[in-house]
Amino acid sequence: MSTPNLYLPLIDLSSTDRASVAQSIRQACMDHGFFYVINHGIDDVTVSSLFSESKKFFDLPLSEKMKLERSKDLRGYMPPYAETLDPSSKFKGDLKESFDIGPSNDSLNQWPSKGKKPASLESYREKIMNVGFRLISLIALALNLDENYFTKIGALDSIMGFLRLLHYPGEIPESDKGKYGTSAHSDFVMITLLVSDGVPGLQICREKDRSPQLWEDVHHVEGALIVNIGDMMERWTNCTFRSTLHRVVAVGQDRYSAAFFLDPNYECVVECLETCCSETAPPRFTPIKCGDYLKERIRLAYSQ
């Protein structure tokens, strides 16, 4: 069951009133787990070049793309039907195809053009990571912490930060009708920053335990990024901030997007923040290293 378009809270990064912005982020993360970001500093040319490079790759013959099939190090190409993010789904395999890219200086990355990484992807990655760092600082304020809290505990040292290019096919066989572009899931990370080409399809479910689930269509805001809280941040905040279920439905049009997953340093310990627990709200989760947490989540996700 779904409803008309949902307008998420709008966060303006050009505002000089950081306390007000932080409070708006806090409310958005408690109510939705998702919000728009405008005036983020990533220009239209950079985004356009990103999608141009993405389309060029996904337009390659499948045989060429499969030469870059995703490795055990989680870098490279995944064809349609190779992944089902919702293990309870009755369908075998999501419709999307994707291409995963690790850190810029990572020798494990795979590239289609004689091993040369495209400058447009490098430019976008650098800019989206900077936006991510700015948001983490504001999220710290939103949690009544020092704005440099996550930097001080080493969470942002040598982060991985994967960029995933995504293509959802417009034309699908009759036998695939009803399948999802991406099935229902929440992200494993601290935060995800998403840019899309404007084609609809993204839906969120704010109450994951509700039955039946209510899915809301996320409205596209031109020039805005969509940011969502991941499971790791939900764990850090003792569920004060919500990691919201989301999915992408097929709409009969090709859809392109790019998700940047901001992970903490793998040695950083994720444990309940002091500002998110009390005698009446004790920590719900045991402390765990980021790397150990991600490895276990990935193992469970791909053991299906």
From TrEMBL:
Keywords: Iron, Metal-binding, Oxidoreductase. It comes from the Eukaryota. InterPro entries: DIOX_N, IPNS-like_FE2OG_OXY, IPNS-like_sf, Oxoglu/Fe-dep_dioxygenase_dom. Pfam families: 2OG-FeII_Oxy, DIOX_N. The keyword Oxidoreductase applies. Residues 158-264 form the Fe2OG dioxygenase domain. The keyword Aminoacyl-tRNA synthetase does not apply. One of its GO terms (molecular function) is metal ion binding. Belongs to the iron/ascorbate-dependent oxidoreductase family. This is 2-oxoglutarate (2OG) and Fe(II)-dependent oxygenase superfamily protein.
